[in-house]
Write a structure and sequence with these properties.
single chain; 352 residues; mainly alpha; three-stranded antiparallel beta sheet; 14 helices; 3 strands; elongated
Length: 352
């Protein structure tokens, strides 16, 4: 009964149409902005950036959910909670669950509008996994909105906090700057950001195994010594290098492309095909965490009545535990440079 009432309350045509139009129009704009990107290094970078752009609608989705939750919460706390019609846990879970069908529908529509203009038709496994990532992204946005607004008094305050958190997760998701180029502390932010795993999963699934064809601007041009072909001159190098040599029989104007497949490009930004399902599972952990924290925060700030002594003791214990968790997480996640052996210099293992 409560879910039915929640569906009827959240089923306003303008809000639902606004949510659908936001997702579909954004996906179409992004998809056709990078329509059939070529397989050059710049084309691969464009595709990864298109995934990054798709995640930028996150903040707008969150801002749509929070005002309606505030209205529903006000009605519940004035009307249903004093009459004990149902518990606060039922109210909160119903408001979270009622959004999920809309997010699933939106995820499927956004997948179709974004995926096919950029990637075309690929295998069923790839299409299925990317549509799951799209659905997961919108469910995550919904649960994140409820976590932020659960304890706060109004949508404006929650919107400011949500925008700040979203900016951090968006900035450090590995697209603008790969993790190996970040200072030690900000590597921690890269690993904590849920958008890291969404972007990694979609990019790796869509680009895995694609052959790279360098554009003219990306080729390394040179001429071999007199009397040698490009292939003969480069034979020992090509046995170790990841790239490809065009026209090995040529005796001048040799063309060398530093990459041969998209996985080598993705490795440079710490994206791997082998972690696609791991990343999918990690994002579900974030979703469960959002729901759990929404319940905890609502209980702590809007249900439980704190006395002065218990408040002081409770906050002391809470912040102490938060500090301990932060210290442990930082000790695990912060990258420390390896100490170079004596009388030896560190070796850069990048091959391109």
């Amino acid at each position: 009964m409560l879910l039915s009432a929640s569906f009827s309350n959240t089923g306003e045509h303008r809000r639902i149409w606004g949510k659908l139009l936001l997702g579909i129009m954004s996906a179409l704009f992004i998809g056709f902005s990078f329509f059939q990107s070529d397989s050059s290094q710049q084309g691969l970078q464009n595709i990864v950036f298109s995934v990054f752009m798709l995640t930028t609608i996150f903040s707008s989705l969150v801002q749509q959910i929070m005002p309606r939750f505030v209205t529903q919460r006000s009605l519940y706390e004035v009307r249903e909670r004093p009459s004990k019609a149902y518990s606060w846990k039922a109210f909160l879970i119903a408001n979270i669950v009622v959004e999920i069908p809309y997010q699933i529908l939106l995820g499927v529509l956004v997948f179709g509008a974004y995926y096919y203009p950029i990637y075309g038709v690929q295998s069923s496994e790839r299409q299925g996994l990317i549509v799951l990532y799209c659905i997961q992204f919108f469910i995550f946005a919904s649960t994140f909105a409820h976590m932020v607004i659960a304890a706060l008094p109004d949508a404006e305050t929650a919107g400011n906090i949500a925008t700040l958190l979203f900016s951090l997760t968006l900035t450090f998701n590995g697209v603008m700057q790969p993790p190996q180029a970040l200072p030690g502390f900000w590597v921690f932010m890269y690993r904590v950001s849920p958008l890291t795993y969404i972007v990694d999963g979609i990019a790796a699934t869509g680009l895995h195994g694609c052959t790279v064809t360098c554009s003219v601007a990306e080729l390394n041009l040179f001429s071999p010594p007199t009397g040698q072909t490009c292939g003969g001159y480069m034979s020992s190098y090509l046995s170790q290098a990841p790239g490809q040599l065009y026209d090995p029989t040529a005796t001048s104007n040799c063309e060398y492309c530093p990459l041969s497949n998209a996985d080598q490009f993705l490795a440079g930004v710490a994206i791997s095909w082998t972690t696609r399902w791991r990343n999918f599972g990690i994002v579900w952990a974030y979703i469960v965490f959002n729901i759990f924290m929404a319940v905890v925060l609502y209980y702590m700030f809007r249900v439980r009545k704190w006395s002065g002594a218990s408040t002081k003791k409770g906050l002391s214990v809470f912040f102490h535990r938060i500090g301990r968790v932060g210290y442990l997480v930082r000790s695990v996640c912060v990258r420390r440079p390896a100490k170079a052996p004596e009388r030896k210099e560190a070796i850069n293992n990048r091959v391109y």
